[in-house]
Design brief:
alpha+beta; two-stranded antiparallel sheet; 2 strands
């Protein structure tokens, strides 16, 4: 997949679904630049999440319990 194809797929996913895309690839090929360009084109707020620098709680929230049930507080982003 090239950058133009990535931008087309991202635009479709972001505007027509409630899915969160996860873009994976080699360093320096333009993943972040493509995402930022698409976000600006469709006036979408882009929260940059670097999975290599995050803990599990950063993604799914902090666990808490109500009686015998486990819940997860949602991250602020």
């Amino acid at each position: 997949m090239n950058i133009d194809q990535l931008k087309t797929v991202l635009r479709e996913i972001i505007t027509k679904t409630d899915l969160t895309p996860c873009v994976v690839g080699h360093l320096g090929v333009g993943k972040t630049a493509a995402i930022i360009q698409v976000a600006e084109e469709i006036d979408f707020t882009y929260p940059s999440l670097r999975l290599g620098q995050m803990e599990v709680g950063d993604l799914i929230g902090i666990p808490y319990r109500i009686e015998d049930e486990m819940h997860w507080s949602r991250p602020s982003w």
